[in-house]
Amino acid sequence: MPGTETSAEPAAHPITPSRKVPKPKTAVERKARLERILAELDHLFPQATCALHHRNAWELLVATILSAQCTDERVNKVTPELFKKYRTIKDLANASQDELANDIRSTGFFNNKSRSLIGAARKILEAYDGRVPQTMEELLTVPGAARKTANVVLGTAYGIASGIVVDTHVQRVSQRLDLTKHSDPAKIEQDLMKTLPQDRWILFSHQVIHFGRQICIARKPRCGSCPLDPLCYAKDKSLA
Ligand code: SF4
What we know:
By secondary structure, the protein is an all-alpha fold. It has two domains: 23-47 and 164-231, Orthogonal Bundle (Endonuclease Iii, domain 2); 57-158, Endonuclease III, domain 1 (Orthogonal Bundle). 51% of the residues lie in helices and 0% in strands. It contains eleven helices and no strands. It has helices at residues 27-44, 57-66, 72-85, 89-93, 97-103, 110-127, 136-139, 147-158, 168-176, 185-195, 201-214. The longest helix has 18 residues, at 27-44. It starts with 26 loop residues before the first helix and ends in a 26-residue tail after the last helix. Residues 176-177, 215-216, 221-223, 226, 228-229, 232, 234, 237 line the site of iron/sulfur cluster.
């Protein structure tokens, strides 16, 4: 998968207990801490990008819809055959829903996803002249494309920083790093958009998704290999 490699396996080190990590108290301290976090993410994942294989915005939209409640690896196994069978947006718009559901069965939630894919193809053909729209407002009219999906497509396919992708990894890591106090993805995204410079929004999402998959994992985060350990006062740091 492109962009998933770390520059090097981070060295193991003793873990700093949360209570011994100073919390930033002023705006200047918060800014300095954020800059250190971003620098470490740059060092870990300098080339981070979307792990979903795609050749254009339409394929990325399809892959992102399929990735709901499914791993990117599984989606990447399904999409090559899918795009061979349905070569154009029109092909998918005219697909039999039962047949399409069967084609994408292994990604889970295949009835909903097949309905969304056919609906998305029809909407893009009818309303957008067969081109995946390039604005958040328009993308949100496409079946299956909520804000997270729209951010993936706009950021990765078009390089448009419309917002920040908040998936389960970005949600968890942002909370652990105290970049947000919220648990609702929409509110987390607002907090991150206020905190991060806009030219970091796209890269930050990709970096944190990889960081959350490889190091700051949900259960027993690998704090002993995490370069952010000296900055992290998360309550659920793993001391093992
Ligand atoms: S792995 Fe996560 S919880 Fe552990 S130190 Fe790093 S950022 Fe904090």
